[in-house]
Here is the input.
Amino acid sequence: MRQDLAYLRAQIGALETGTHGEARVLATGARAFDEALGGGLALGGVSELVPASFMDEPANISFSLACGAIMMAQRPGDLVIVQDGGQARSWGSFYGPGLQGRGLACARIMLVDAPDAKRFQACLEECARTQGLAGVLALAGAKSGFNLAGARRIQLAAEHGQSLVLLVQSLRTPPFAPARARLSITSAPSRPIPQGPSLPAPGPPSWRVRLERARGGIKPQFSHLAFHLEYDDATHRLYQPAALADRPPVTHQRWA
Amino acid sequence: MRLIALNRAAEEAGLSRGMMLAGAKALVPDLMVADSDHGEETSDLLALARWSMRWTPYVAPVKGLTNTYGLFLDITGCAHLFGGEDGILADMLRAMRGLGLTARAACASTPGAAFALARFAPDAKGGLSAPDGRALRALVGALPIEGLRIDEMKASALRALGLKTIGTLAGQSSAALARRFGIDLVAALERAQGYEDEAIDPVCEIIPRRVRLRLMEPLMTRDGLEKAVGKAVGEICILLARYNEGALGLVVNLYRVDGMVLTLKGGSGRPHRDAVLWARVLRERIEALSQGAGLDLGFGIDLIEIGAPIVQRLEDIVADLDPIAAAALASADALHRLADRLSARLGAGRVTRFGAVASWVPEQAVTRVAMCDASQAGHVAATDFPAHIAARRPAMLLECAQPIDAIAEVPDGPPRQFRWRALSFKVACAQGPERIACGEEQARDYYRVETGEGHRFWLYRQGLPGLVERPRWYVHGIGV
Here is the structure.
């Protein structure tokens, strides 16, 4: 790239994000995925997680929880989970022991149940503005889409607080315009763990993550990249399973 | 049916209390009557009692009498603020008249004497401040025995004996009176004559740390209210600083000029006395209330009282020299401020942490603990769930388990295929069972299963295989 073009890009980038120099990121551990994102999940910005289909909404939420665990492992402070209570909780509500099993220590989680979409947006702005949090998970309902001005407010608040906001969209929520990254999540079968003659046990959770947009990351023409990611709950990191392991699941018949 | 209360026009028409309704209608054919509603009247009296706390914190309604409404106010140490006993009585009567109530007031050394004088002394219309000792007994002695707060049966029995005034009753031997009418009558006599004091039961808890702000002009606007509350907050924070204490909650009572009291409550997760933060929390509260149209200022607010019901001693904080520890401290501080503000806006129950409960039943093992609820202060401890249980639980739990049609290995294997919400799933991986037994019928065998597409569920079979003929299957959690 020509040097003057790069300089102009950097200037525009600084105007856009209000930060000069390098944007700060949080590495997730999966190297190729981080590089495509431009180093990791952006601090001081909103990353958007969207499910690829209706049945992928649980996978979307569980991916966001894995990211939450990564945030809590790498950053001090508490994780705030903001939920839009106006939506029907078709997938149930968060369950403390399960969260702890994934590495989200319950003593460091604050749950905020906003009664409707309007107050959900106000609470999210308030949380994004707060400095010193590990991160903010926002679970949007179908009706809690942001208009352009509202989305910009959240973005500015996140820049002010240098906080990491993950916006977990439901299938019908309209897209969040100023998102730093937009990831489309599909559930993927895990690598089963054989256990004697019966059915194999499910392996570590895994997802197929498609990068739809990444500001400051990989160039747009290459951005429709898909990654197969797994979560390691011992080290709180995402990783890409080795290509050798990416073969059709071992069926139990071989052990019968 | 009898008349129990009249307005001035009815009195001028010649009606009186206790008259039969039929007789009254015969005298005044176009008389308007309404049924008495005891519950409403009692709650109105309580509201009036709360409003009367503008004169003294110790206010109690008169109890134990039918169709007799009165308030006891203990004005010890308060009268000089209103220009002495005569001044405070005149102020009370003026205020009650402003509310459209006919009131009589008297002030004496004991509640019993004050009651008798207020109700039956002719001077009580303009406020009667009674002397002590012999002069008090002379004043009370001339009053009818109803002034003793005794029931009507006893009063009519005494009247039948010719004992019509407190003075004549006091002339009798108290032993004889106790034998005939019970010891209560003697006690009532002692109280009315100022010999014996009596405890009253105040309507509100007494908050030692409180500040009141009298306003020259009634406040009508929200802007003004926010400013005035901010000023009151500043004053109570100065008061708390004097005792080196921090508040876990603030209660603001707004006295409306028309006899109503509005209450605002703000809470905090930990004690502090930062006036800016408290003002912000209360402003959120005002905003939340006015959105729900729950804050009607009416004709204005003329008195603001702010109290800190729960206070804790604050130790002086040493600014930490270690930057990491200082950052952690600042971060915890920021979180608590955020929690306080959001709790004020949404209600304390909506800003929570998880709390562990020692129970094997999955849906009972978790509770939500409010971040800033003064009543739970100190119970909010960092709780962890046992690790071996946490590893096998789902991230999302359904409010109640939903029945599914499942095909499982017989007799007690994991499910192979199931239908949930009109979708069919084929199980590829399964782990279990984990048996949680709450009685034989209710025993559950939990399985973590994953479908071929990677959807993860937490399923259970209810009833032990072999004991129950057709066990039922349920889905209980998602994303296990």
About this structure: Confidence is low (pLDDT under 50) at residues 251-256 of chain A. The two ends of chain A are 59 Å apart (CA to CA). The longest helix of chain A spans residues 57-74.
